[in-house]
Amino acid sequence: MDHNKRYDIALSLSRELERELGDDLVCCCLYGSTARSEDTQWSDIELFAVTKKEVKSRHFLIGMIPTGIHIMEEKRLLHILENPGLDWPFYAGLMANLKVLSGDRLAPERYYEKAMGIPEEKFKTALREKLSELVFESWGRIFSCIKRKKHEDIYCAVIETLLEMRTALCLLNGKHVNRDYFDGIKETFSFEKKPKDYPKLATRLWNCHDVAAIAKDARELIENFISLLKSEEILSN
Asked: What predicted TM-score, i.e. pTM, was given to this entire model?
């Protein structure tokens, strides 16, 4: 399936949803690689719809292409965007990258403005509240794997650590990223507030498969992360 076919399917699905929901649909949008015209023959089709009432999301296959319409009630979306938490970086970034196919074409822009209008202290409060769910458990898992000699699991723990640190840095800086996986982590390299030597250490950890080197860089990264959190008064000294 080529890009034009994938886009036509997305457009058809959005129009079907618009006919079904009528005035209850705020907008139906395309996102991901198809929206960016970067899709390949293996890419999925990702739609995001905002509704005035709760409607169940839909996931199915078209041929062998995973296709999803993630549907969210406007009230819930606004709550996520205006009250930062672990989901805020994803949905803020989503609002910045939606391609409207049907409905109110200005809706994502309004939602994005709300997301980016949050006071800095509110982000810091969210990070303090969610810190126990970020970085430290997955970082500890790296060393548990080493201790138990489960070296085949170390790399998964490294990835979890780096992805969770990305989320933590988004909250600390009140910013989002626009990409997944390592591309999203690289976006946080330009953030003002980040651990010392973060780009270098994160890049080495992502690419490294040597146990001793992972242990050394992981220790240094967590020490620098803790120093950052203390300097920003997220952790007490």
From this structure: 0.95
